[in-house]
Design brief:
This protein is mainly alpha-helical. It is built from 11 helices and no strands. The radius of gyration is 18 Å and the shape is globular. It is found in: Cell membrane.
Length: about 260
């Protein structure tokens, strides 16, 4: 029963944090330490619950994903599959090349705390740069901006840095509005997370057993329900809240866990 409650809590945290610029991976690693839910089985569980968040975006943005089937390379094509490919390419390539190193050396509470602080500082810097907005909406984002956002997404390979935090900040630095950058982050997250999680699951297949099915399904369901609510809420929040507030939260979380762990 205790493990089922762990699954619920971790599913809730995944759903709440996946699309906020606060690092869902970092939260899961730190929460796993507090719950004493660690090891290869726990890492596999973390991968599974991410699919709940992916499913939430697919449901909420289903019409937008249908429109991505358009594949046009004209400069004024509106958001299409080529934008997504450009945004995925840098982090996808880096992830494949550095997968073993990242999993071996970067998935620890200490590295997460570093990522939380570094990511927060980057978000503050991006907001204070005050770059002129050239893309107010999702369809205004250019191919050049999409690729630039993809380059910034490489930073998220460091756990705790945050994929949404790096891409939203990168989008703002490349001239996208905060809202457009956030929505673009949601869209790109689906193929990016599905691909990365799929690779992780294949590598962790020995830890997938039928006895763990209830545990994984409960965590995935909790992540899906909470992520569905969080996606809508975050888009409304992003219109009102500055990234700096999320950065302050990251600093506070890092300080709290540093005190708890050490």
């Amino acid at each position: 029963m205790a493990e089922l409650w762990n699954a619920i809590w971790m599913g809730i945290i995944e759903g709440l944090t996946e699309f906020l610029p606060v690092s869902s991976t970092g939260h899961l690693i730190l929460l796993g330490e507090l719950l004493s839910f660690t090891g290869d089985r726990a890492k596999t569980f973390e991968v599974v619950v991410q699919f709940g968040a992916v499913l939430a975006v697919l449901v909420l943005y289903r019409s937008r994903f249908a429109s991505l089937l358009r594949f046009r390379i004209q400069p004024k094509a509106g958001l299409n599959a080529f934008h997504i490919m450009l945004a995925m390419a840098p982090a996808g390539a880096a992830g494949v090349l550095l997968h073993g190193v990242i999993k071996q050396y970067l998935f620890s509470p200490a590295t997460v705390l570093i990522g939380l602080v570094a990511g927060g500082l980057f978000m503050i810097a991006a907001e204070r740069a005050n770059v002129k907005t050239r893309a107010e909406s999702l369809d205004d984002i250019t191919y050049k901006q999409a690729f630039a956002i993809g380059l910034f997404q490489v930073l998220a390979l460091w756990p705790g840095f945050s994929r949404s935090g790096s891409t939203i900040s990168g989008g703002m630095l490349s001239g996208a509005s905060q809202k457009a950058a956030a929505e673009f982050t949601f869209i790109v997250s689906v193929p990016m997370m599905a691909g990365a999680s799929g690779v992780d699951l294949i590598k962790s297949r020995e830890f997938l057993t039928m006895s763990d099915l209830p545990l994984f399904l409960i965590g995935l369901s909790a992540a899906f329900i909470v992520a569905t609510i969080a996606c809508v809420t975050f888009i409304n929040l992003i219109k009102k809240l500055r990234l700096t507030w999320f950065a302050y939260y990251r600093f506070a979380l890092a300080a709290l866990f540093a005190w708890i762990i050490w």
